[in-house]
Design brief:
Blueprint: H1 17-20, H2 43-47, H3 50-53, H4 58-77, E1 83-88, E2 94-98, H5 115-121, H6 144-150, E3 152-161, E4 164-171, E5 174-175, E6 180-184, E7 189-196, H7 198-201, H8 213-226, E8 231-236, E9 243-247, H9 253-260, E10 272-278, E11 281-289, E12 296-301, E13 304-305, H10 311-330, H11 343-347, E14 350-357, H12 374-394, H13 396-429, E15 450-455, H14 457-466, E16 472-477, H15 489-492, H16 496-505, E17 522-526, H17 531-547, H18 549-553, E18 557-560, E19 565-569, E20 572-576, H19 579-588, E21 596-599, H20 608-616, E22 623-625, H21 631-642, H22 646-656
Parallel strand pairs: 1-8, 12-14, 15-16, 15-17, 17-18
Antiparallel strand pairs: 1-2, 2-7, 3-4, 3-7, 4-5, 4-6, 8-9, 10-11, 11-14, 12-13, 18-22, 19-20, 19-21
Helix pairs in contact: 4-6, 10-12, 14-20
Length: about 675
């Protein structure tokens, strides 16, 4: 996806004590050596780093920064830190600085070492396990700074505490210096400076991935939204001119939801918001319905994103569906004996953020993707139920628009169900036959099978002749399929081209979707290398993103890269896949004299042998794997680029036109 310009918000308003105490939880009073509890050692981390940071690729590299930032954010949530700065240097060096209390440096009663060294060198050693120093924490199931230390070739911890500055250095999880007192200091806090270990992130001399400024900025912006009153600054010092992103949002999650829906048309005059503590759990929920038909739900526990949801999100969904059903029956939107709203009906067009802060979060998995605390479900359910009833009563116009949208979604759902059943009945009558235009492969092992979705009969004919019949299937489609960005399922089921794709995949769609029934390991979109081909590819990507996202999430979707040029000198033939490669080949062949250059505009211009050699042969082809690194950003961009609104799309193109590669005019 194209990069979005990082927003910069500078507020001159002071960060008040009231904002720092916004979480309404009791402020801890103790943070000394006795609060640091030791659970186990560090050695397993270097042996199996993937268990602790997810991977040793680019995701794991960024995770190191997130873990250190989590500690600084914990200080902010506890009411102590007001400012956090993350700075990137050359050679992958990073520093994270906060103005919190500073890690304790006195001697730990169990380890007989300084508390700083204990925290830095022993896994699961920290104040977050004792309960007195942090009432809530994002870094608990962590991994934490000790894992960052274990996976760093160099790490330096600097602490300003009680007017004294201290530092200690480490390598691969072990201290290389003693704790050294380095004079006086004025502003308390902690600074962690580290360099990831190439042995872990670039084994056997491979190239270590680099930090992505936008990716970090998006994550830090999110943390700032979730921690009202903290300022987080990201500084990229890897270039001559520093790139800076500075975030501070007084509105907290209300500012967050406005950011998420800025390209949408809200149907509410008032955004729903509640913040309340229930049974020692702070529940903060904000939502707004828009004219979109897609739902966006973000959930967090102690500022940790939970992409797989969990108990807190379940509690929100349960309360939302129940309260809206009760209100619809009370106001006679749903008559006696009529079918009520389902959860999907209640969430169509919904953008929501569910954030909880609780003393003892139980995450499922080391990477904290799902919250398992049953008490979080009860807390969110209770808080949202009460607040939503009050919201509907106080805002009757909003209540009316929300219910009308949900009722319309229910009608569309029933129409889609009827259309789908008709398709299924027809399929049963036809013996569940595959589309007639599908030229299937002979293998019966899905793990080795490939499906090429090819635009046009001409290209489809070449692909059928040039393919390897054993494992490559061809499905030609005619022209531009339906843009499903604003379409409901019943409309989609009327499209013959889309029905052919769904039947060929074998997975079904909507609630019947089953990724285990996918008939091909690779689904390859193959379109012409021109504007129309790019548009068709975009329409197909929209279909998969909106209605078949698991195909993407499981790594099955690819885009073929046909060559742009055929370059021939005598009997020597080369193919170029970019302008730069074309220039390199021409230079290698001795300049443009007596060289034949053919610019391919369509796949149909290649004969079957050329198509196989350049685009379909697994030994020589180039495929782009489709992934979703940031689902929310992808959702926003699909809405901008494929939605009905012209103004946001025009603005996006104006901003990003100069960064587009391979623009075909």
């Amino acid at each position: 996806m194209p990069n979005k310009k990082t927003k910069k918000l500078n507020s001159k308003n002071p960060i008040t004590d009231e904002l720092q105490l916004q979480n309404t939880l009791e402020k801890p009073t103790s943070y000394d050596a006795k609060d640091i509890m030791v659970l186990e050692g560090l050695e397993p981390v270097r042996r199996r780093p993937g268990m602790y940071i997810g991977s040793t690729g680019i995701d794991g590299l960024h995770h190191l920064i997130y873990e250190v930032v989590d500690n600084a954010v914990d200080e902010a949530m506890a009411g102590y830190a007001k400012n956090i700065e993350v700075r990137l240097y050359d050679n992958h060096r990073v520093s994270v600085q906060d103005d919190g209390r500073g890690i304790p440096v006195d001697i730990h009663p169990q380890t007989k070492k300084s508390s700083l060294e204990t925290v830095m060198t022993i896994l699961h050693a920290g104040a977050k396990f004792g309960g007195a120093s942090y009432k809530v924490s994002g870094g608990l199931h962590g991994v934490g700074v000790s894992v960052v230390n274990a996976l760093s070739a160099f790490l330096r911890a600097e602490v300003c505490r009680d007017g004294q500055k201290y530092y200690q250095e480490y390598s691969k999880g072990k201290s290389t210096t003693k704790l050294i007192k380095e004079g006086s200091c004025r502003i308390p806090g902690t600074t962690i400076i580290f360099e990831p270990d190439p042995e872990i992130f670039a084994p056997k001399g491979s190239k270590m991935p680099d930090y992505d400024f936008k990716r970090l900025a998006d994550h830090l912006r999110e943390q700032t939204y979730l921690t009202k009153g903290v300022r987080i600054r990201l500084v990229d010092g890897r270039t001559d001119k520093e790139n800076i992103a500075d975030f501070y949002f007084e509105g907290g999650v209300i500012s967050f939801i406005k950011y998420l829906i800025e390209e949408e048309k809200p149907i509410q005059d008032n955004i729903f918001y509640v913040s309340k503590t229930y049974d020692k759990i702070l529940v903060e929920v904000v939502f707004c319905y828009t004219e979109d038909i897609q739902a966006t739900e973000l959930s967090f526990a102690n500022n940790i994103r939970t992409p797989e949801g969990g108990m807190h999100l379940t509690g929100f969904r349960t309360a939302l569906t129940r309260v809206l059903n009760d209100w619809a029956k009370k106001e006679e939107y749903i008559k006696e004996g009529e079918e009520g709203l389902t959860g999907d009906d209640a969430r169509e067009g919904l953008s929501a953020i569910v954030s909880v802060k609780l003393p003892d979060p139980q995450f499922e998995g080391q990477t904290k993707e799902k919250l398992g605390n049953p008490e979080a479900r009860a807390a969110v359910d209770a808080v949202v139920s009460e607040a939503l009833k009050e919201f509907l009563e106080k805002n009757p116009n909003d209540a009316k628009r929300i219910l009308e949208k949900c009722i319309l979604a229910a009608k569309a759902r029933r129409a889609a169900k009827a259309a789908k059943e008709m398709v299924l009945r027809k399929g049963l009558l036809e013996g569940l036959s595959l589309p007639g235009k599908l030229t299937d492969c002979s293998t019966r092992h899905p793990e080795e099978a490939e499906l090429f979705i090819v635009e046009g009969d001409s290209a489809g004919g070449s692909a059928k002749q040039g393919r390897d019949r054993r494992f490559q299937a061809i499905l030609p489609i005619k022209g531009k399929i339906l843009n499903v960005e604003k379409a409901r399922l019943n409309k989609i089921m009327e499209s013959q081209e889309i029905k052919s794709i769904i039947i060929a995949l074998g997975t079904a769609i909507a609630e019947e979707f089953d990724i285990n029934k996918l008939r091909y390991n690779k689904i390859i979109i193959m379109t012409d290398a021109d504007v129309d081909g790019a548009h068709i590819c975009s329409l197909l990507l929209t279909l998969f993103f909106r209605f078949l996202p698991e195909v993407i999430h499981h790594g099955h979707l690819y885009i073929a890269q046909p060559p742009l040029y055929r370059i021939q000198k005598g009997k020597e033939v080369h193919y170029a896949y970019s302008e730069e490669q074309k220039d390199q080949i021409i230079k290698k062949l001795g300049g443009s004299e007596s060289i034949s250059i053919q610019r391919y505009k369509g796949l149909g211009e290649m004969n079957p042998e050329q198509l196989w050699e350049t685009t379909m042969n697994p030994e020589t082809r180039i495929l782009k794997k489709v992934t979703i690194e940031d689902a929310e950003e992808a959702d926003r961009l699909f809405t901008i680029l494929m939605g009905d609104e012209v103004a946001p799309r025009k603005h996006f193109i104006q901003v990003h036109a100069k960064t587009v590669n391979n623009l075909d005019i």
